[in-house]
Design goal:
The protein has helices at about 40-45, 75-90; strands at about 15-20, 30, 50-60, 65-70, 90-95, 95, 105, 105-115. With about 120 residues, the chain is an alpha+beta fold.
């Protein structure tokens, strides 16, 4: 994972991707497209070298993010919006499935991280 990239947080403290509710038999899985450079002008405002933001993502039955909202901010609204834009425009998911194996839409919690170079 390169610098300044949004990515799934793999830290052991809590799940990075956690679905809301119990409707899904098989949860949505991130396939890719979550790595992208954040504009350097946005990262200059941070004293810290890295950080994270928690997002609510709605993943459709087609594996696309159709909605993103900030659950816990990075501390800057522009960075929060940039992280949501990356997830909506670029991320691809294997959709969640119900007990009959049909793709379904789910809302899940996602931890996006950023890092300065």
């Amino acid at each position: 994972m390169g610098p300044d990239r949004a990515r799934e947080d793999r830290a052991p403290a809590g799940a990075a991707v956690e679905a809301e509710g119990a409707a899904a038999w098989v949860q949505a899985q991130l396939l890719g497209g979550n790595s992208a450079r954040l504009p350097r002008r946005l990262l200059r405002v941070f004293a810290a070298e890295q950080g994270y933001g928690h997002l609510w993502l709605t993943v459709s039955e087609r594996g696309r993010v159709t909605n993103c909202s900030v659950m816990q901010t990075t501390g800057d609204a522009q960075v929060d919006q940039a992280l949501c834009n990356i997830m909506i425009r670029q991320s691809r998911w294997a959709p969640a499935r119900d007990r009959q194996g049909r793709p379904i839409s789910v809302t899940l919690r996602y931890t996006a991280t950023w890092r300065k170079t």
